[in-house]
């Protein structure tokens, strides 16, 4: 296993604020690694330290086993792409891509060969003489990436590069970036606050909050097996209840929620009676009008407040009876629920294997 990037116990503080707090991780060669978190969590600070634009207060950053301490940005084997792509409008596509090669002092024949090769790899062959204003948003993205990749960096750093695109193009570029990274084989380190971008594109994702990694895992495990309440809230949609433990036998936890429901949840964690907890449930885990023959469901009645139509992602917004709690319920595509109307009272249920229970963290 080859490691392109190794970050070891890196910390960065500004006055009395710790932006990055003892963060460690490794990225294997050829992987697409994302750092996901809200604004102000420290992800851009971490990326800047990898790029050499800022120095850590403690810890070590290695790129291909070489310590980067004291190595200036222009001598590090990385390139950085920002949301503002910073393409030169007065240059055509080939000149933009060749800019870094000219600064390195490469010969004309070598530059022409490398530019042609990288344009082929990013599916822009024949675009050499096009002006930047003639390109679509997605094509500009690929030119910016090609300009970096032509310099053959060990790691390509991407700082929310899709943030300025409209929604439709952003959705398209998520797929394009994933395909491009797989094709060129360069290690990508990508930061974003958009969990959909991270889940769709990445081999591994680190969820960051308040300067620390809450969980580093595959997209599937982050979604299905979050290890902290923050990850459960931040990755995907979740319904949430606060409550207290009635009883726990080491397998099943009985929880009484603050709005008066009693739910059973499977958990391998140890809980004490009376302990405050947070309970999370994915919208797609909730069954509408479940068959009476299905045993061991947590069942309760709700009032439909609204149908949130979004094609395959359509949902119901509901309130459990006699509570102000708002819950989201996904509408499965294999059944029709056209009969459900606003203010209807319906039964819903969920399996005790679907809930996620965490000890409450007081804030």
Topology summary:
Elements: E1 3-14, E2 17-28, E3 32-36, H1 43-51, E4 58-63, E5 66-67, E6 78-81, H2 93-104, H3 108-121, H4 137-149, E7 155-159, H5 167-184, E8 187-192, H6 195-201, E9 204-209, E10 212-217, H7 219-224, H8 229-234, E11 239-248, E12 252-257, E13 262-266, E14 276-281, E15 287-288, E16 297-308, E17 315-320, E18 327-330, E19 345-351, E20 356-359
Helix pairs in contact: 2-3, 2-4
Question: What this model shows, in words?
Answer:
The chain contains eight helices and 20 strands. The chain has 363 residues and is of the alpha+beta class. The strands form four sheets. The protein has a six-stranded mixed β-sheet, sandwiched between helices. Strands 13-12-11-14-20 form a five-stranded antiparallel β-sheet. A hairpin with a 6-residue loop joins strand 17 and strand 18 (327-330). Helix 2 crosses helix 3 (108-121) and helix 2 (93-104) runs parallel beside helix 4 (137-149). The longest helix is centred in the middle third of the chain and has 18 residues, at 167-184. The chain is globular, with a radius of gyration of 25 Å.
């Amino acid at each position: 296993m080859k490691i392109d990037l190794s970050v070891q116990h890196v910390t960065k503080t500004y006055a009395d604020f710790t932006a990055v707090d003892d963060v460690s991780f490794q990225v294997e060669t050829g992987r697409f690694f994302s750092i996901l978190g809200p604004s102000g969590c420290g992800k851009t600070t971490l990326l800047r330290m990898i790029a050499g634009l800022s120095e850590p207060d403690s810890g070590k950053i290695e790129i291909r086993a070489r310590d980067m301490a004291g190595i200036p940005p222009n001598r590090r084997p990385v390139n950085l792409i920002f949301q503002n792509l910073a393409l030169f409008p007065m240059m055509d596509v080939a000149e933009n891509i060749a800019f870094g090669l000219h600064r390195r002092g490469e010969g004309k024949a070598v530059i022409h060969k490398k530019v042609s090769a990288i344009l082929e790899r990013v599916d822009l062959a024949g675009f050499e003489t096009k002006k930047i204003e003639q390109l679509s948003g997605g094509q500009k993205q690929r030119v910016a990436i090609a300009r970096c990749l032509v310099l053959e960096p060990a790691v390509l750093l991407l700082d929310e590069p899709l943030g300025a695109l409209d929604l439709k193009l952003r959705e398209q570029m998520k797929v394009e970036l994933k395909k491009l990274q797989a094709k060129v084989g360069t290690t990508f380190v990508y930061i974003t606050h958009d969990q959909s971008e991270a889940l769709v594109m990445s081999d591994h994702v680190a969820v960051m909050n308040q300067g620390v990694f809450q969980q580093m895992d595959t997209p599937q495990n982050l979604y299905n097996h979050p290890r902290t309440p923050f990850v459960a809230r931040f990755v995907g949609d979740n319904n949430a209840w606060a409550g207290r433990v009635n009883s726990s036998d080491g397998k099943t936890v009985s929880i009484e929620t603050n709005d008066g429901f009693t739910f059973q949840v499977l958990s391998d964690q140890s809980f004490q009676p009376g302990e405050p907890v947070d309970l999370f449930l994915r919208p797609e885990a909730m069954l509408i009008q479940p068959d009476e023959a299905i045993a061991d469901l947590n069942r309760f009645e709700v009032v439909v407040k609204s149908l949130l139509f979004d094609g395959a992602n359509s949902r119901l917004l509901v309130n459990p009876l006699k509570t102000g709690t708002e819950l989201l319920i996904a509408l499965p595509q294999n059944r029709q629920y056209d009969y459900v109307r606003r203010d209807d009272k319906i039964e819903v249920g969920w399996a005790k294997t679907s809930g996620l229970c965490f000890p409450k963290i007081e804030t």
